[in-house]
Structures
1.
Amino acid sequence: MNRTASKFVVACALQLTAGGAWADLEADIQSILALDAAPPGVVFEIVSGNKDYLEDAIPKVSAASERLRARFEGISIAVVTHGREQFALTRDKADENQPLHDLVKTLSSDREIPVHVCGTHAGWFGMTPEAFPEYVDVAAAGPTQVQQYRELGYRLILVR
């Protein structure tokens, strides 16, 4: 197989994997929507090695959140992102990622859905909490933040 064909096969495999991930997200949302009563909350956990992943993930989380709140008015929702993708939310990436930043600001400010990034992961790359805008909460550790929500009874939805 030549190099171009190999790249095509890899690209197709990645596309199929991503499609499967979104299918899993839909299945998780459907299982919550089918409940008779709302859970205490829902936490979306986003972890990816892809720096551009939030461009797709956050709009899907936003749409899912609207559906959850249409079914269960006032349900608590949170987002925790703690992979390479979280760096799209830094202040210095705001112009480059303006639609993403606008949506995250809407989620956190207008819709009361906190968006957390991982301070530990940021620290590994020399970033302090000040590297992120005020509408992004810098948690000490992303996995710990997810666990705290789970201890409150939140249902976990992995967005991978």
2.
Amino acid sequence: MLTVFFIAWPLISMLLVYLAGEKNAKSAALGSTLVQFVATMYALYGFQQNADIQYLYQHEWIRSFGIQFYVGMDGISMMMVLLTNLIMPLIILSSWRYEYKNPRLFYVLTLLMHSALIGVFVSLDAFLYYIFWELALVPIYFIILIWGGESRIRITFKFFIYTIAGSLLMLLGIIFLYFQTQSPSNFTWDSFIATGKRLPEEVQTLVFWAFFIAYAIKMPVFPFHSWQPDTYQTAPPQGSMLLSGIMLKMGIYSVIRWILPIVPLGAMDASHIVIILAVTGIVYGAWIAIEQKDFKRLLAYSSFSHVGLIAAGIMTPSLQGLQGGMIQMLSHAINIT
């Protein structure tokens, strides 16, 4: 039930923030995220190393389609939940000197994104995971659209089109895997792993690209990055922190959780292409970053370059590459925040 609490508490806090009024919305949001962080420390204290997925909660949701509310945490998920619940209070605290118009709505949207991000990191049902993946897009879209800078309508529309196009490809991949599962068909992570490994290498490669393009846009990886500089520049400071500090980690985490174990042959077959794109992004992003005079665009391109290093690491067929990529992911999140 602790995992469910991590998802539900920000949603409950949205109501508390709204009831707190305009003047106290900021304090209520900060208090909510601090409670979440304390609960995470408790979960971390009780977390057993070298064990299977823990803090499981599984409940049938839509029985006719095999859809379940199935959540839990292993070491990777625990790390992402800890990172998210550590950074969120810092993001709220950084807004203390800013006066946003309609602050209640701003912090309600921030908490909605908080819940969706946690949902992505703990979901063990592909359909549930996809819902949280899409839900995380909604609040950041409105945060940029309402409190962003110049040309925010055009830039948020471009951001929305990029991410929704990638998500539709991922949805096709999820549906395909669902119909390949053995009876009774379901969307669970365990079932998808068993199903994916049975597929021929050519089919695994197609599934890999259906998922990876969605993740490459979110991270982003070259050449799917053109939305990032304008979006970072236009977003309010806290929006940029949400995008760079946590949201791009959705893509990195998802490669590790939903690609590598499910279609291992496809990942291996495509790894050399991804590494070439990632290394291209490292050099290109760093080169462009040097010439930037706007701090947010500098942040965007340097972040893009750093993410290329992470992507190359996790796509190498080695434990050291995966571990190095995860360490770089943590350092990137802390430095960027």
3.
Amino acid sequence: MKYSKVFLDSIGYELAPQVVTSKTLEARLEPLYNDLRMPLGQLEALTGIRERRWWEPDASLSGKALQAARKALAQSQVPPAAVGALIYAGVCRENCEPATACAVAADLGLSAGAAVFDVSNACLGVLNGVLDIANRIELGQLRAGLVVSCESAREINESMIERMLADRTMDGYRLSVATLTGGSGAVALLLTDGSFGRMERRLLGGVYQTAPQHHDLCVWNNDFMRTDAAAVLKHGVELGRLTWQALLQALGWAQGEVDKVICHQVGGVHRTAMLGSMGIPAEKDFSTYEYLGNIGTVSLPLTAAIAEERDFLKRGDKVAFFGIGSGLNCLMLGWEW
């Protein structure tokens, strides 16, 4: 996949207000730790995550996504009526139907001719949405489109803590601990054809690689989630390595030409293993998992926005986005920032 006229005009985001430390979560699990004779501190030691954020109870997913979308539009010269498509791409949704995107679009002032729908693909949803909008722009079907998402970790964490305390087995802990890395946040990416006066962050292309035989390694159903973290790490890193080689070939990039990378934010062990398998120095990567945790679809674009705010991403940089999600699916995008 290659693109010639797709630009990331702006990124708007919302950080959830409640800071929840790993120590706080482990204090609630102390009876389990005592039964398993494990010292406190395992969660941060295993993941590198000191804290993450949660929304207030009963927060509106569409409302938070709407706030992020308004921020993205406020940074641009694009009027809401010119947005030809709005895609909501979060794992978390408000209803089975209608699409959560409809609730966002209702208060944003889009035209009646805009395409409004949801996309679901685990932690890759936002990147899939970006490609959908990019394809429409490249085909000349629209001039601008929005991809929005909001993830909330509070509910699944509360449910899994109750289950872990009821189960109190090492196997239960092993399959549940990845859930405790989850954070909350919202993001909106505004993509255009460059005709609104800003031609920055040009999308050059992207590649997919999939390993669907591993679809059962991480499963989230309503109030239950289980993750075989060791297997996800092993197979995910290999899939990431193959996707990286495919991206370099597709874009005609040499390994050393890539200036910066932004990865999906899973944790310290995954980051080290993924970068190591690709031969990418750690100083080329920007991370937020230490204080924001894993925010699912929101993590990668929100991290990119913060990286730009802190002058890590600079104009002219060759930047790669590394997306990976349960399935297993991998999607990487290349940008000229």
